[in-house]
């Protein structure tokens, strides 16, 4: 079963890597042809929505134990990104052409075209050291850029949400509005993201330090 699950995970992560590479290609082609950052959603938004929906499978991977991450942390990450993508970007036309969406999508694409190949090759025990280094290094710059793009997009959406009473029907039986909910998310976002960011630094030390120590011994 271990061999079968590793093969399945290899194909799943490879498919996600290809999908995110296509998304980045589409965004790049649109940017180069139009010299504008306004077309990120139009060029790749629907594909990114599909890839993000499919990523719920990763929560199930943790729940059934075929990956060691558990399900709670992946669920929270998936829910946060999915809310931003489907409820804010896809659901509010006025924010789709913001430069912040371009920044966010490009950051996501770069992270995922490194993360998914890393997972895929790790499943078959053939992950090169440079990919491991990129997996635990690129986030240092890319994650803050992505989070800044997400927060900027949500902030710009607030006035539209307030003026158009967006999702008011869904919040009718709740003692607060969607506008208030997004404001609360914006307040909590930096603190929740910081925990993830520091956790990734901890992972980086544990994953890269043994390699560095071996190199020192060889010298």
Automatic annotation (TrEMBL):
<keyword id="KW-0444">Lipid biosynthesis</keyword>
<dbReference type="GO" id="GO:0102158">
    <property type="term" value="F:very-long-chain (3R)-3-hydroxyacyl-CoA dehydratase activity"/>
</dbReference>
<dbReference type="GO" id="GO:0005789">
    <property type="term" value="C:endoplasmic reticulum membrane"/>
</dbReference>
<keyword id="KW-0256">Endoplasmic reticulum</keyword>
<comment type="function">
    <text>Catalyzes the third of the four reactions of the long-chain fatty acids elongation cycle. This endoplasmic reticulum-bound enzymatic process, allows the addition of two carbons to the chain of long- and very long-chain fatty acids/VLCFAs per cycle. This enzyme catalyzes the dehydration of the 3-hydroxyacyl-CoA intermediate into trans-2,3-enoyl-CoA, within each cycle of fatty acid elongation. Thereby, it participates to the production of VLCFAs of different chain lengths that are involved in multiple biological processes as precursors of membrane lipids and lipid mediators.</text>
</comment>
<feature type="transmembrane region" description="Helical">
    <location>
        <begin position="175"/>
        <end position="200"/>
    </location>
</feature>
<dbReference type="InterPro" id="IPR007482">
    <property type="entry name" value="Tyr_Pase-like_PTPLA"/>
</dbReference>
<dbReference type="Pfam" id="PF04387">
    <property type="entry name" value="PTPLA"/>
</dbReference>
<feature type="transmembrane region" description="Helical">
    <location>
        <begin position="100"/>
        <end position="121"/>
    </location>
</feature>
<keyword id="KW-0472">Membrane</keyword>
<protein>
    <recommendedName>
        <fullName>Very-long-chain (3R)-3-hydroxyacyl-CoA dehydratase</fullName>
        <ecNumber>4.2.1.134</ecNumber>
    </recommendedName>
</protein>
<keyword id="KW-0456">Lyase</keyword>
<keyword id="KW-0275">Fatty acid biosynthesis</keyword>
<dbReference type="GO" id="GO:0030148">
    <property type="term" value="P:sphingolipid biosynthetic process"/>
</dbReference>
<keyword id="KW-0443">Lipid metabolism</keyword>
<keyword id="KW-0276">Fatty acid metabolism</keyword>
<keyword id="KW-1133">Transmembrane helix</keyword>
<feature type="transmembrane region" description="Helical">
    <location>
        <begin position="133"/>
        <end position="155"/>
    </location>
</feature>
<keyword id="KW-0812">Transmembrane</keyword>
<feature type="transmembrane region" description="Helical">
    <location>
        <begin position="6"/>
        <end position="25"/>
    </location>
</feature>
<dbReference type="GO" id="GO:0042761">
    <property type="term" value="P:very long-chain fatty acid biosynthetic process"/>
</dbReference>
<comment type="pathway">
    <text>Lipid metabolism; fatty acid biosynthesis.</text>
</comment>
<dbReference type="GO" id="GO:0030497">
    <property type="term" value="P:fatty acid elongation"/>
</dbReference>
<comment type="similarity">
    <text>Belongs to the very long-chain fatty acids dehydratase HACD family.</text>
</comment>
């Amino acid at each position: 079963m271990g061999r079968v699950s590793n093969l399945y995970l290899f194909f799943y992560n490879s498919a996600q890597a290809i999908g995110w590479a296509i998304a980045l290609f589409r965004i790049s082609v649109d940017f180069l042809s139009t010299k504008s950052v306004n077309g990120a959603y139009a060029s790749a938004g629907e594909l990114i929505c599909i890839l993000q929906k499919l990523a719920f499978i990763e929560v199930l991977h943790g729940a059934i134990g075929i990956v060691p991450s558990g399900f709670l942390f992946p669920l929270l990450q998936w829910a946060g990104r999915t809310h931003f993508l489907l409820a804010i970007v896809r659901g509010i036309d006025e924010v789709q052409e913001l430069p912040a969406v371009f920044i966010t999508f490009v950051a996501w694409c770069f992270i995922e075209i490194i993360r998914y190949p890393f997972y895929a090759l790790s499943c078959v025990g053939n992950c090169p050291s440079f990919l491991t280094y990129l997996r635990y290094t690129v986030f240092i710059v890319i994650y803050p850029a992505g989070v800044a793009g997400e927060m900027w997009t949500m902030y710009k959406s607030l006035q539209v949400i307030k003026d158009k009473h967006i999702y008011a029907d869904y919040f009718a039986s709740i003692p607060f509005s969607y506008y208030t909910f997004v404001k609360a998310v914006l307040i909590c976002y930096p603190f929740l993201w910081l925990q993830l960011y520091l956790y990734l630094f901890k992972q980086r030390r544990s994953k890269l330090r043994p390699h560095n120590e071996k190199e020192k011994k060889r010298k």
